[in-house]
Design a protein that fits this description.
- It is a single chain.
- 43% of the residues lie in helices and 24% in strands.
- It has ten helices and nine strands.
- The longest helix is centred in the C-terminal third of the chain and has 28 residues.
- The radius of gyration is 17 Å and the shape is globular.
- The termini are far apart.
- The relative contact order is 0.17.
Length: 256
Amino acid sequence: MRPSQPLYDALAPDYDAHFAVPHRRAYDDLAWERVRVLLPPDGPVVDAGCGVGRWARRLLDLGHPVTGVEQAPGMVAELRRRPPGPGFTLVEGSMTEVTLPATAGAVLAMGSLQYTAEPEDAVRHLAGWLRPGGVLAVLVDSLVGLVLELVGAGRGDEAVDRLARRRGVWRAEGQAADLHLLDRARLEAAFDAAGLVEVRSAGLLVSAGPLGRAGLAERLAADRDALLALERRLGDDPLLADAGKQLLVTGRRAPV
């Protein structure tokens, strides 16, 4: 797999603007709504693959001390230039290699797990940072969601290829990074194997498949609140989890 680090280095200076694109801002907001209610009332949170600190800032605003793990030098440079705030600790390194104590009330991997070499091993590693009762939340590109979107766009051969290989490619700023395309069954099995309980999945932006990217952008521009209200209802049904453009899976380390 081509590593993601060069791509994220290239994106780093304007990464916040990258998430101002309507569909990315929509699934980011939907993910935050679902994760926020699972956070402990206090205590440390680990942001694995924290980028420039977008999620860390939200967590700090809620009063959580945050440890951000990041390996891309460009992202690290932005974090040092514009720190998320007091209570933030940066750990430079790969989220699959860094060693942290099992004290986190929550560990978040929002868009980072799919770039690891072995996602199942990564889930087990991240779960090892949780204290009893702590929550792991993982957000990834959905295999099924992408396939449906490609079919709708008339790119059937590419859809079949992605489905067969379970791999995707993200191209931006002249760079390309390979990623695992994951589904609910595989991720939930990884959470189970890591010993997590209360495992739940939700699809974010289920509308992306039937509407297509252009149609989704039009609906968001016309009435964002109405579309997000619909997405919240659709996302509550686990049967539709794989149909989302993004797949959010959460689980908890069993209390002692």
